[in-house]
Every structure is written in structure tokens, then in C-alpha cells.
Amino acid sequence: MSVEAWTTMFVIISFMLYLYIGWRSRVKDSKGFFVADQGVPAIANGAATAADWMSAASFISMAGLISFLGFDGSMYLMGWTGGFVLLALLLAPYLRKFGKYTVPDFVGDRYYSVWARLVAVVAAIFVSLTYVAGQMRGVGIVFSRFLQVDISTGVIIGMVIVAFFAVLGGMKGITWTQVAQYGVLIVAYLIPAIAISLILTGNPIPQVAFSFSDIVEKLNGVQKANFNFFITSIIIKKKEYKCK
User: Is 244 helix (H, G, I), strand (E, B) or coil?
Assistant: First the structure.
């Protein structure tokens, strides 16, 4: 079975799982739609939040940005991560405390101002559209690479799938779908990290290899050579060493 066939099968199975979760998580009232009846366990919420962080924006764009800009690109990564922390600490708890479902509702009631609510609406729309545009572009790129379709078609497919479980299941469907995506994404992150660590240092634990080996110097070589050529040369050297 070819790599393309395995990839296609894995993508189809993954999205069938997401659609099934969305169907099983369908809700009938506003509380279930907006806050999942406040019944999602903390671990599941943590996994869903982690999957949000490991989205197309970070999984593709952040990695590409750091690869292109080098160390200077890490400032975007820190801002990205810091934003999640600020939202979790300074906004999310108070939405729950006030019993509100949206940021504009919370801001309007908190400051007793229609204008504050309007500003929050405009800010939410602007930020959401900017974020969704990047995410949908990432979805289109992924589909175009693995399913051999153009980016526009990939974006449409992604929008249909997301709309299906978002409309049916609301926050409950989105959260549990994100939990499933977390499992897929964390494996996708770990496989190349472990493989590169094992190839360069012989240690399958990247964190240990990073701390107690010269893997940093070896990885710096990636910036000076084609990645495939660099990895191939490392493999050849390891084989030559074993032959000795």
C-alpha cells in the first residue's frame, strides 16, 4: 500500500470520527450549545485547549515562520502562547462567574455600557475573522497536499465538516472533537521529534537529547543544507560508524 493511500485512508477515518462525535454530541438548548452544559471534565477541556493551540496557525504557520526567520520568529510563538494564558486566567473564569456566553455580553454587563458591548462585538468579529482566515487557509493547504485537490476545494471541504459538528453539537461537539484532534496532533508532533532525536543522537526522548547532547549544533546544520540532504548524510554517517 502506497504512502498516499495510507495518508488518504487516515485522513478519511479521522474526519469520519470527528463527524461521528459531532453527531453524538448534538444539543437542544442554548446552555448546551454555548457552554456544553458545563459538564466537560477538566482534562478534556485541557486537551481541547491544547488542540486549539496546535492548530493550523501553529502547526503549519508558526513552524514555517520560525524556520524562515530563525530565532526572531520565536517572539510570535511566545505571544501566541501568552495570549492563551491570558484568556484562560483573565477572561474565561469571569464569563462563567457572570453566567454569560459571549465576550460582548460580559463586557457590556460588566461596564454597564452599550458602547463597550459594541466595541467588544467589533473586536470579536475582527479577531475571529483574522484567526479563521488563517485556519481555513491552513485547512486548504493540508487538503491540497494530501488529497490532491486545489486549496479552494480544501477550504470548502473543511468549512463543511467544521460547520456540521459546530452547528449540531455547539461547544460540546467542538470540545469533544478537539479532544479527538488532540490525540491525532500530539502523535503527529511526537513522531518526527522522536525520529529526529533518534537519528541524530540515538536517544528517543527529545527533551533528554536536547539537554545532554550536541543535537542543537546538528540541527543548526539544517539552516545551511537541504533538510533531506542533511538527514540523509546523518543516516549515512551512522551506518558508516556501525560498519567500523
Answer: coil
Gap between the Cα atoms of 122 and 107, Å rounded: 12
Digit-coded pLDDT (tens) for 26-54: 777 777 777 777 777 888 888 888 887 77
Q: How many domains does the chain have?
A: 1
Mean predicted confidence (pLDDT) in 167-195: 82
- One-letter amino acid of 135: Q
And the C-alpha cell for 93?
473564569
pLDDT tens digits for range 85-108: 888 888 778 877 887 778 888 888
Q: Would you say residue 222 lies in a domain?
A: no
Domain-located, residue 142: yes
Give dist(CA 80, CA 156) in Å, integer: 26
Does residue 207 sit within a domain?
A: no
* Of 181, 210, 198, nearest in space to 234 by CA: 198
Closest Cα partner for 222 from 199, 190, 188? 199
Residue pLDDT, tens place only, 128-143:
887 788 778 878 887 7
Per-residue pLDDT at 241 exceeds 60? no
Length of the chain: 244
d(CA 130, CA 54): 17
Model confidence at 211: pLDDT above 80: no
- Structural domain containing residue 157: 3-189
Answer whether residue 217 is part of any domain.
no
Q: How many Cα atoms sit within 13 Å of 27 on the Cβ side?
A: 22
- For every residue of 140-156, DSSP letters joined together read HHHHHHHS---HHHHHH
